[in-house]
Automatic annotation (TrEMBL):
<feature type="transmembrane region" description="Helical">
    <location>
        <begin position="47"/>
        <end position="64"/>
    </location>
</feature>
<dbReference type="InterPro" id="IPR006696">
    <property type="entry name" value="DUF423"/>
</dbReference>
<comment type="similarity">
    <text>Belongs to the UPF0382 family.</text>
</comment>
<keyword id="KW-0812">Transmembrane</keyword>
<feature type="transmembrane region" description="Helical">
    <location>
        <begin position="97"/>
        <end position="121"/>
    </location>
</feature>
<protein>
    <submittedName>
        <fullName>Uncharacterized membrane protein YgdD, TMEM256/DUF423 family</fullName>
    </submittedName>
</protein>
<feature type="transmembrane region" description="Helical">
    <location>
        <begin position="71"/>
        <end position="91"/>
    </location>
</feature>
<keyword id="KW-1133">Transmembrane helix</keyword>
<dbReference type="GO" id="GO:0005886">
    <property type="term" value="C:plasma membrane"/>
</dbReference>
<dbReference type="Pfam" id="PF04241">
    <property type="entry name" value="DUF423"/>
</dbReference>
<keyword id="KW-0472">Membrane</keyword>
Length: 128
């Protein structure tokens, strides 16, 4: 099932570029320095994991039967939603309550890479 992850990776990379331009030009005079830093952190991790989704899609072309690689991709997407999008909302609204959810996204990011490492350790390239 590589196509959904390739598509999600491409869409999220586009979103990162668009949000980065918006942040650099449209929000520079609106956000405080602290909020700009928070926005940038969300953007930075969003971009890393957008590329991660593309990698997952490419891996699934070769290891189509690996449910762990697929799970890793879904955890990356969950991390984008819970971490990066919460940081965007926090920086735009300055409502600190959004920060409560953010660590769950960070944990999702971490677990996604651990699951990917386990998946790659377990796959047998001659069979899968």
């Amino acid at each position: 099932m590589p196509k959904p992850f390739l598509l999600l990776g491409a869409i999220n990379t586009f979103l990162c570029i668009a949000l980065g331009a918006f942040g650099a030009h449209g929000l520079k005079s609106v956000l405080t320095d602290d909020m700009q830093t928070i926005f940038h952190t969300g953007l930075q991790y969003h971009l890393y994991h957008s590329f991660g989704l593309l990698i997952i899609g490419l891996l699934l072309i070769h290891y189509a039967k690996s449910r762990l690689i697929e799970l890793s991709g879904w955890l990356m997407l969950l991390g984008i939603i819970l971490f990066s999008f919460n940081l965007y909302m926090l920086s735009l609204t300055e409502i600190r309550a959004f920060g409560i959810i953010t660590p769950f996204g960070g944990f999702s990011y971490i677990v996604s890479w651990v699951v990917l490492a386990i998946a790659l350790w377990k796959v047998n390239p001659s069979v899968d």
